Amino acid sequence: MSSPAIHTAPLVRIAKRDGIALWKSCLIRLAAVFLALVLSGLFIYSLTKLNPVDVYKAMYDGAFGTSRRTWITVREVMTLLCIAIGLAPAFKMRFWNIGAEGQVLIGGIVTAGMMIHLGNTMSTPLLLLVMGVASLAAGAVWGLIPALFKARWNTNETLFTLMLNYVAIQLTSYCVSLWENPYGSNVVGQINQQTRSGWFPELFGISCGLNVLLVLVLTVGMYIYLRYSKQGYEIAVLGESVNTARYAGIKPSKVIIRTMILSGAICGLAGFIAVAGADHTISVDTAGGRGFTAIIVAWIAKFNTFVMLLISLLLVFLQQGAIEIATQFGLNDFAANVITGIILFCIIGSEFFINYRLIPRSGKEAKGA
Amino acid sequence: MATEYAVELRGVTKTFGPVVANDRVDLQIHRGEILSLLGENGSGKTTLMNMLSGIYYPDAGEILVNGKAVTIHSPKDAFDLGIGMIHQHFKLVDVLTATENIVLGLKEPGRLDLKAAARRIREICDKYGFAVDPEKKIYDMSVSEKQTVEIVKVLYRGANILILDEPTAVLTPQETARLFAVLRNMKADGKSIVIITHKLHEVMEISDRVAVLRKGAYVGDVATCDTDPQKLTDMMVGHAVTLNIDRPEPKERTKRLEVRGLTVRNQYGVKALDDVTFDVYGGEILGIAGISGCGQKELLESIAGLQRIETGSIRYFPADDGGQTEKELVGMSPLAIKKAGVALSFVPEDRLGMGLVGSMGMTDNMMLRSYRKGLPIFTNRRDPKKLAEQVREQLEVVTPGVNTPVRRLSGGNVQKVLVGREIAAAPKVLMTAYAVRGLDINTSYTIYNLLTAQKIEGVAVVYVGEDLDVLLELCDRILVLCSGKVNGILDGRTTTKEEVGLRMTNLQEKEGAAQ
Amino acid sequence: MTIFSSQLFMSAIIFGTVILYGALGEILAEKSGNLNLGVPGIMYLGAIAGLAGAFFYEMSTPDPNGFLCLVISLVCSFAASCLGGLLYSFLTITLRVNQNVTGLTLTIFGGGIANFFGGALNTLAGGVGQISVASTSAVYRASLPFANDLGSFGKVIFGHGFLVYVALVLAVCMAWFLNRTRTGLNLRAVGENPATADAAGINVTRYKYVATCLGAGISGLGGLYYTMDYVKGTWASDGTIESLGWLAVALVIFATWKPINVIWGAYLFGYLRWLYNYIEGLGRSSQEIFKMIPYIVTIVVLILVSIRKKRENQPPASLGLSYFREER
To answer: Which strands, in side-by-side order, build the sheet including B254-265?
Structure first.
């Protein structure tokens, strides 16, 4: 009874970190990525018996093996990144915009509709401009709807935006059946395949040059907007505490509405890029789950758009690689989703070790980690 | 082995980051006694008791219950050991009824029988004279009803060791008397009771023994019959309370605010402020006294434009020109008030939840009230950075850097950042809510001196406080709020502590609790 | 072909049952404060595990025993879904990762796993549409022998496989559990105010884990029922399970977190989902618009609930937040 220590203290305790050195957090994230690579390598190995080195070689080959594959990879990265950029301001404001999937589709529908109906009536640059503006507007409206209700009645935005995704998907199905080509096929097919009217032109001799240009401008722009603009500051304050925002004279409802218009608009633009810059058609798979993946990208990157670029690259690389392996070994494409799941689980799990620290029983905890 | 102790703490230590909340505390709780745990705000009373009730886990030290070493990982462990705590912030589930809350987490044999439970609750209520409707939902209840539910909950569970954290802060005198009667009954029953408090008259009235904490460390204990408030105060603060706050006579009082018939309802439709009328003058400090939750928060927030006002008016006088340029503030948003040129600064009670952004550094927090200045679109961080450096230097803010998130600073430094910013805005009216809560003596004096300096410069200072000694030495006039009503405006130099205390608790009848 | 046709009611009940399982599981998880957006993924996991279990059993024996078919597929399905729930719980409760992010990842992951192995099973069985666990499916589809003699009305009521009735019993049991039992009361407290529940001696972590994992298991049965009954023990990666999974999430809101409301809500959603097929003169494109109705209705309910602010109809107060006791 005289021992000063408590005998049955819990094995480890969890305490919130006050802060963490940059190199430490980078190390933890790198470890997570490494773990994810090992796990997905194991997954592929168990299916194909390919030795791990060959797995990664095959994946690299799938993503960057030919210049065509490289451009597809880059294009995919840009679309995913664009959506994540759109989501960043909303999430920074702690507004759970789960509705990117729908906002992308709405932007895509508008773009496809204009390509079909206005194609060949105006020059491609002008048409692109019109489509871009229209998709921005359409996405903005789709983002505005839940924001209005959130601002006025505090309606749960997570569930609202989630439901709007399905409304948008049905709208897309509706448009697909309106525009199907050939009749009865229930697909829209390549729009303006002969004239390429409304397709993204080559830029700097690169097929997806315009995609890259648009999205990189957005990447830099959003970074600056969130870091250095007054509106970005308001978003940061509101995301931290509604009461502080009101105290500072910020009107929460106004900021919520403004930010969601922006968020929806950029997601709508992603739909424009996906349709006019990549698929040249519209279907319910135009968003293809990227609206959801982008949520995770934006969240993991802590709203830093340049980190988003890295994460998007990693994800798309693994996906494209997995698709390549799947093709080689007669597996199906869903292997890519399994790999995406694995890597995302690893990265989001690693956030714990960045935000908290474990204190072993001995109790000799280092002061101020 | 001595087992006359119901509970014994040996060398219990708890730290939160760099803050040592409890430093090697030894404390005994006897069977069948009422022990007062006395200490200033922030002396670690609640933290210590939270370790008994399983909310926190000690970093070091030993806890013995009935002579046996125990580990309390969770409130459940505490409950199994017969320890029940009534927290200052009620732990009740709003959408459940009183009965459901009371039986919550119990492992009684048999199926859940809410009717039988309600019957037992009524028996307990009748026995002790509580009035609580077991069927009533918590969200329909007043503050005092909620506390009653909390107390009945512990009684229902038959705890042997009862810890009450500032139980009387929200009670009327009658309710306090009734509570004390219950506690005496329980003591007679052989139970041990700990009351956490900083009200000396209650200590003297109810307890058998007093244990004192100061800055997280255990000072000592004394039998209540062998002591008096003066000695206790000495133990509590370490030296006799001679606050010696400098209080110059107000010069050139000019009217700045005129509040007339202000009535505000809280989110549940209860009147938080009821027909409040008073004036605020430049060149003086107006103290606002009252037991907590009597409308202080709503009053300041109404003036700052953060509350929806039902009726009444708040007029602001920017210059001493006979009311030529007066402005009506009711109906204006905080931004509109600012844009109208009203020089109003506000240090709110919730520093990191309202006054500052915890995840931002000092620089970005300096911008909070001024970020709209300068060029359109982009923020200017140069001036705020200069201001941050200035505040850091002048108020001796301890921080690794002006970009370190303020959440990581200690409470005193956080408050210096906030007060520094608000004063830097060169206000005509400066409102502060519990400006020294949780701060050490030195920082508290820094704050008092800052406020007095503002008063000398002709600023109208509104000081909402809880420590009567400070109110009596700092303020020129003291407005006493009681249940949302003005219960007298007293002269700070001539009034007595008894007078203020009486007015804080004695309104004609309890009102505002029921709908 | 009218909107009162018994065939429509049959289909409504079938899809309604899938949604019912999904929503019941989700209610359990949400009552503990976990907004599990992984429900579609979990239903996928339940579907593929049940199918795979039955498939390998039927492959291994020339004469499959119906009872064993049933037990194997049920256990596989429930266990796999629980594992999905466990992964979600570990990440959100122990590692305190954001719930939305974790749930969405689980949906991507579950859908990937299920469709990947579904495709693999198809290949094993000799091509798309070839996989068929006929014996197992027959057990799930067996209805009471006299159901066919009762006319169309009787068939609508009694002509289903047993899982339809299990779902109903489960819903009633869950209502009873949540409102009338100690554990149910404790669970509700955990979802409303974990700090209070903790102070009352309730093991918040355990409640959250158990509720979320069991909830996931129940949701997974929806996927199993879809696979065994509606698509007759085959696999089709057409995304129906995912869309029904999101409908289940919607239904929880629609029912304002009450299991009894979920029953009629599920059948209503099932009915609305098929209604377009039974309205004369509806073009293919208008049908797509019609399919929006359940989602629109849910949005309307969500808005109404938020406007009326009736305390009993609100989501559990701590929904979506993780709990950390030493938080200051």
So the answer is: B271-282, B254-265, B309-316, B327-328
Question: How confident is the prediction for chain C on average, in pLDDT?
Answer: 86
C265-319, pLDDT tens digit by residue? Answer: 999 989 888 888 887 777 777 888 888 888 898 899 889 888 887 777 788 888 8
* Distance, CA of A217 to CA of A222 (rounded, Å): 8
Flag whether residue C190 sits within 8 Å of chain B, measured between CB atoms.
Answer: no
Inter-chain CB proximity C182 and B92 less than 8 Å: no
Taking the Cβ of residue C282 and every Cβ of chain B, the question of whether any pair is shorter than 8 Å is answered with no
For chain A, list the contacting chains (3+ Cβ pairs, <8 Å). Answer: B, C
pLDDT band at A8 (very low <50, low <70, confident <90, very high): very low
Distance from CA of B403 to the nearest CA of A (A): 13
Å between B59 CA and nearest CA of chain A:
7
Q: Does A354 touch chain C (CB under 8 A)?
A: no
Q: Which CATH architecture has domain A78-186+194-329?
A: Orthogonal Bundle (1.10)
Which residue of chain B comes nearest to C202, CA vs CA? B105
Interface of C with A in 75-94 (CB under 8 A): 87, 91
Q: Is the pLDDT of residue A1 over 70?
A: no
- Are C306 and A166 an interchain contact pair (Cβ–Cβ within 8 Å)? no
Q: What is the pLDDT of residue B240?
A: 42
pLDDT of residue C81: 96
Apex CA A321: angle with CA A315 and CA A327, to 5°? 135
* pTM beyond 0.90: no
Q: What is the fold of B254-343+426-505?
A: Rossmann fold (3.40.50)
- Contact state of C112 with A340 under an 8 Å Cβ cutoff: yes
Contacting residues of C for A113, CB less than 8 Å apart: none
Q: What's the pLDDT score for residue C124?
A: 73
CATH number of B5-237: 3.40.50.300
pLDDT band at B512 (very low <50, low <70, confident <90, very high): very low
Domain boundaries, chain B: 5-237, 254-343+426-505, 356-424
User: Is B254-343+426-505 in the same CATH topology as B5-237?
Assistant: yes
Range in A30-34, B360-364, B510-514 the model is least confident about:
B510-514
Looking at this protein, which amino acid is placed at residue C51? L
Is the sign of the CA dihedral B72, B75, B78, B83 positive or negative?
A: positive
For chain C, which domains are there?
6-313 (1.10.3470)
Q: Domain segments of chain A: what residues? A: 78-186+194-329
